[in-house]
Amino acid sequence: MTDRDKKTPAPAAAGSDGSGSEPLLKVEGLVKHFPITKGVLKRKVGAVQAVDGLTFDVRPGETLGVVGESGCGKSTMGRLVTRLLEPTGGKVEFQGRDITHMSAGRLRPMRRDIQMIFQDPYGSLNPRHTVGGIVGTPFRLQGVKPEGGVKAEVQRLLELVGLNPEHYNRYPHEFSGGQRQRIGIARALALKPKLVVADEPVSALDVSIQAQVVNLLDDLQDELGLTYMIIAHDLSVIRHVSDRIAVMYLGKIVELADRNSLYEAPMHPYTTALMSAVPVPDPRRRGAKSERILLKGDVPSPISPPTGCRFHTRCWKATQVCKTTEPPLLQLKTGHQVACHHPENGEDQAPGDAPLVADVITVKSAGAAEPVAEPVAEPVAEPVAPAAEPIAEPVAEPVAEPVAEPVAPAAEPIAEPVAEPVAPVASDEPGGPDASPEAPGSVASEGPEKSAVPATDDEGDGSAAPSTGAEGKPKE
Fold first, then answer.
1. How confident is the model at residue 288 (pLDDT cuts 50, 70, 90)?
2. Which pick of 150, 186, 306, 416 has the fewest CB atoms within 10 Å?
3. Is 333 in a helix, a strand, or coil?
4. Where in this chain does the record put each ABC transporter domain (predicted)?
5. Model's pTM, two decimal places?
6. Over residues 327-332, mean pLDDT
């Protein structure tokens, strides 16, 4: 962090508008549409608008970070800048030369000045080649003969990125993910480029390995004077390594500013939502409620993006002008550009416009206060009150009546069959004191023949036997 603090002021001054420094890379209106074909004749029926009108520049010695959701066109933009893809429209200039539609033969000498670190450390290395062959390939393709030989230079590069020079003859499958990414970095630095485009350099690595690779990139920039354009979706990594940050949404740059200005006072609502999702590793804030903006809905399809501002379908500040007019990327503060009609921390560009109430209710804030609590309390309280009446009436009436009626008649049929069979047994043998012991015996003897009577006595109550003895005594 100390190294970053020391070198931050210089790039910030160079990257501010109006400075005399000539940009190393300049992009104007960059467009890339991938055609959608159908049928045997490959008839074009549509296009995926991956990148649509990007304008920015990168100055020598600085690091430009590019963030955004998956599918917003970050990786496509990196491949267009390095001319791995042919642009559909726009203009790309490198050191004042237009390389937009430069042929492969004329572009080959410039490849040594523009290199790329790919996202996948597993797929970007040829498993059939050794590390020495992979890192030494740029020298062979460009016809460069380094001093001391290719092998000595490759071993020096391996040691520069933190690997053992003895790894020269090993294959990629013998290394871990972090070591493979270091091999990719060594290959990108082989020809001493001026611009390095790093596409998600740490996304496939563990957290501890991420810190090692990020610190390695910082050290190499200080040592070799490199210029970076780092593409990532981890806002914490971008904040650590970048001098300026561009925020992309659905193929467009919606905000471009220096690091401190963007993180302290974001102006675009989409940037504000992204910043609210960043966890803060502060133990003193444990248990404290933080405001989290939840965007409803999915990102629109790049095949048919919305008209006007592309974020208006999910924006809580959208108005009618956002639906019809696309906002340009304007500088509202020094070194802070934003494409929004209603910026968060700036002057409203379209005051008094009617909001899109019927079309957009897209954000829910966990820490919202009065404006959010009032509209939620009114619609919930009204439907709950009438719901209590229909529930109380049907439950009280049917339960009380059917339970009370069947219980009362149940007592009568049990008393009658028990009294009738006991009376004739007592009348046949009026024998004084011997009648009471025989009466239960006689009833028990009839039990197997008349199975219904003892079954009801046993199941109903255990008091049936004493009741027969009580009836026999008064008859004596």
1. low
2. 416
3. strand
4. 25-275
5. 0.69
6. 92
For residues 298 and 391, the model is more confident at: 298
CB of 304 closer than 8 Å to CB of 250? no
CA–CA dist 130, 215 (Å, integer): 26
Q: Which of 319, 320, 321, 343 is nearest to 330 (CA)?
A: 343
Single out the residue of 280, 327, 279, 287 nearest to residue 306, CA to CA: 327
Q: What is the mean pLDDT of the chain?
A: 76
Q: Which residues contact 97 (CB under 8 A, 6 or more apart)?
A: 110
- Give me the architecture of the 2-113+193-280+328-339 domain, per CATH: 3-Layer(aba) Sandwich (3.40)
Sign of CA dihedral 291, 297, 302, 307: negative
What six digits make up the tokens of 96? Answer: 């004042």
List, by residue range, all CATH 3.40.50.300 domains of the chain: 2-113+193-280+328-339
One-letter identity of residue 416: E
Q: Which amino acid would we find at residue 237?
A: V
Which residue stretches of 8-56 are H helix? 9-15
| DSSP helix/strand/coil, 269 | helix
